Amino acid sequence: MDTVQTIPYRRVYVWELPVRLYHWINALVIVLLAVSGYLIGNPQAIFSADEAYQLYWFGWVRFIHFAAAYIYFFNFLFRIYWGFVGNKYARWNRFIPVKKQQLKDLLEVLKVDIVESKLRGRISVGHNILAGISYFFTFLVFLLQALTGFALYSSMSEGFIPRLFGWVIPLFGGDAAVRQWHHILMWFFVSFVIVHVYLVFYHDYVEGRGTTSSIIGGWKFVRDDEIKK
Predict the structure, then answer these.
(1) pLDDT reported for residue 5
(2) What is the per-residue pLDDT for 158?
(3) With 60 labelled, which of 107, 119, 193, 212 sits at a CA distance of 20 to 30 A?
(4) Phi, psi of 9 (to 5 degrees)
(5) Within 13 Å of residue 203, how many CA atoms lie on the same side as its CB?
(6) What is the pTM of this model?
């Protein structure tokens, strides 16, 4: 009688609490920034029948945007720091391909994600290399969005942090150019969120390792022969 060989799985703690908190805080503030930023750029005439003194909705929109921007900024700085002190799945070498094997893994992931071919290579325990490169590029966009946002805020704020970014406006060629870039980058984040959510669920289905739930509890299911990867 034929026997079926089974490969044992075990739980591996991949995403530490600081990484998970960063992820969910970032998700919340990006939504708040995108919605409030869109309303600032395209104000809606809601409650226009009321007297101006009876409402302050646009003031609240601006307050939410500016408050979320500070949280976004310091949360981003924290993630940069954690990339140096976190576990091996959070470190910066997971985001930048520096090894030959990582380039091979990149080809494999591209085949699975784009052509939807069957997964044949090894499965990364943490971020796969394509996700790592995408997140690294996204971190650069995070930085650019913070620079342009605080630069726009510097013209109407006496705060210490916004005033540090006043040099960005002449560098970009004026307030209008900075505002345009800030708006374009907002749509980058909207597109990124859509693709990100799709790929998370897709890889959860293809790999069956608990990708989706791992960002909540931190644990993934890993084969014993992949435990060191």
Answers:
(1) 52
(2) 84
(3) 193
(4) -115, 155
(5) 27
(6) 0.83
- Mean pLDDT for back-to-back runs of 10 residues, the chain (229 residues): 60 93 96 93 69 71 94 95 93 78 68 61 72 87 94 88 92 93 93 90 80 91 62
How many residues are given for the chain? 229
Contact predicate 218/20, CB 8 Å: yes
Long-range CB pairs of 170-173, under 8 A, 24+ apart, other chains included = 172/148
Query: Scanning the structure block, which residue is given the tokens 């959070």?
Result: 90
Q: Cα(first)–Cα(last) distance of the chain, in Å?
A: 35
pLDDT of 6 reads: 60
Homologous superfamily of the 24-44+53-194 domain (CATH): Transmembrane di-heme cytochromes, Chain C (1.20.950.20)
- What pLDDT does residue 116 have? 60
Task: Write out the two tokens for 122.
Answer: 């090894």
Burial 57-77 (b: 16+ CB within 10 A, else e): eeeebeebbbebbeebbebbe
- Listed in sequence order, the DSSP H helices in the chain are 17-41, 57-85, 100-110, 129-154, 160-163, 168-172, 175-207, 211-217
CA distances from residue 65 to 35, 72, 158, 202, 224 in whole angstroms, order as listed:
9, 10, 17, 32, 46
Domain range annotation of the chain: 24-44+53-194
* Distance between CA atoms of residues 13 and 11, nearest Å: 7
The DSSP result for 192-222, as a single string, is HHHHHHHHHHHHHHHH-S-HHHHHHH-EEEE
| 125, 117 contact by CB (below 8 A) | no
